[in-house]
Amino acid sequence: MQLTLRGVSHRFTDAAWLFRNLTFRFEAGTSYALTGPSGSGKSTLLALAAGWITPAEGNVESRGIDRTSWVFQNSHGMPRRTALDHVVLPMIAGGLTRAESESIAHGTLARFRLGGLASRPFRALSGGEAQRLMFARAVAANPQLILVDEPTAQLDAVTSKLVNSVIQELSDDGRILLVASHDADTVASCDVRLDLAAYAAED
Fold first, then answer.
1. Model confidence over 125-140: pLDDT tens digits?
2. Pair 192, 31: CB distance under 8 Å
3. 118 Cβ contact partners less than 8 Å away, ≥ 6 residues apart
4. pTM of the prediction?
5. Rounded Cα distance, 165 and 160, in Å
6. Dist. CA 162–CA 131, nearest whole Å
7. Alpha-carbon distance 53 to 70, whole Å?
């Protein structure tokens, strides 16, 4: 399972190039921190990895990846649905029964330190709890690729530490994990750093 960028450069219409001639291979079982100043193209690179957009130059090649999950900067959930529902529904959509899904979901919630909150509605969760639930929901879809965009940007230091510990654990699952972040601790929680500043277009 691999995701490979070959000579990838990107810009939007006539805007300046975000990055040029980026060649890199992302391997299974590894977490990657995407770093660089604002406007360097971190979120854009996630979108390229997901296949949402096509690079202006170069190619994005994937092998063995047919399911991708996202965790966004702001936690988006269904206010009245419980934490358990958020993890169960992706599995039901994938073909499991409700009973099968709930059995797996309880274990997944416990893994992300949410076991005691299964029946709590999303609107009653704290910011850190909601963000960890987004990771649990992402994992529930059993993806080969997880894309994470600034996961601790809206969190305090204590909650950020919990989220970063989740990132460290996910790299042991045999998935490819790409994390765009400005946060030094989040970057340190990943196995490999890819600094997009090194691929900035020369003036």
1. 998 899 889 989 998 8
2. yes
3. 82, 83, 84, 105, 106, 109
4. 0.90
5. 9
6. 10
7. 15
